[in-house]
Amino acid sequence: MKMKKILSICALSAFMCVNAMAEQINVLAAASLKYVLEDIKSEFLKTHKKDKIEVSYISSGKAYAQIQNGSPTHLFIAADMSYPQKLYDEKLAPSQPSNYAKGKLVLFSANADFKADSIEILKNDKIKHIAIPNPKLAPYGRAAEEFLKSQKLEKKLKSKLSVGDSIGQATSYVLQGASEIGFSALSMVIKDKTPHLTYTLIDESTYKPINQALIIPNHGKDSKLAKEFVEYILTSKVAEKIFQEYGYDKADK
């Protein structure tokens, strides 16, 4: 009886120890990462079954502002380099950001009457609404704006632009039919099975490279799980393969 009691205590202690080691982190991630990051997270958690990673997908600009205002964020995965760099420059993160991938801009449609197989579709007078992520908050919106300027279309199309707070909102405008066409990230549409969805890649010479970076803010500096997840994103072959499947290139050095 005494031995059973000892064994029970040992088992309870072991259980408590395992659970004490389990960790949860809060991640703010760019909306353009919604699909690719969920796949990467799922693979990572296969070897971290007790741990939890809660991800909120919003525009990089809004994520940056939330961290500035004290959001308890362990990891920030942005759609550009500038917002993570600002956190470091403002001493809101202990280490420099790391580039993890380079994104690609697309023009797309989910409307059978307007195939987005060429940028020439932008000149179609029948199109009344063009979705675009907010250039002030979303890096892909900024890239779309740069592209329009390069084609001298910014002023001509200004009245048609439907601005979404994030790339997720802008993409939904097109998928739900509120806009005939729109700008998004390749990662958002490459695996989408929406009927009649078509897209064309925007020439990368018409916008600045979308080098995407991540950073651990001060709140996450002591988080073992955050550091391990970052290492997995940056170095694992599995993560690299998933990024490639969603159309990302390796980040410029």
TrEMBL record:
Pfam families: SBP_bac_11. The keyword RNA-binding does not apply. This is Molybdate ABC transporter, periplasmic molybdate-binding protein. It comes from the Bacteria. The gene is modA. Molybdate binds at S32, S60, I167. NCBIfam families: modA. Belongs to the bacterial solute-binding protein ModA family. Transmembrane segments: none annotated. One of its GO terms (biological process) is molybdate ion transport. SUPFAM superfamilies: Periplasmic binding protein-like II (SSF53850). Gene3D superfamilies: Periplasmic binding protein-like II.
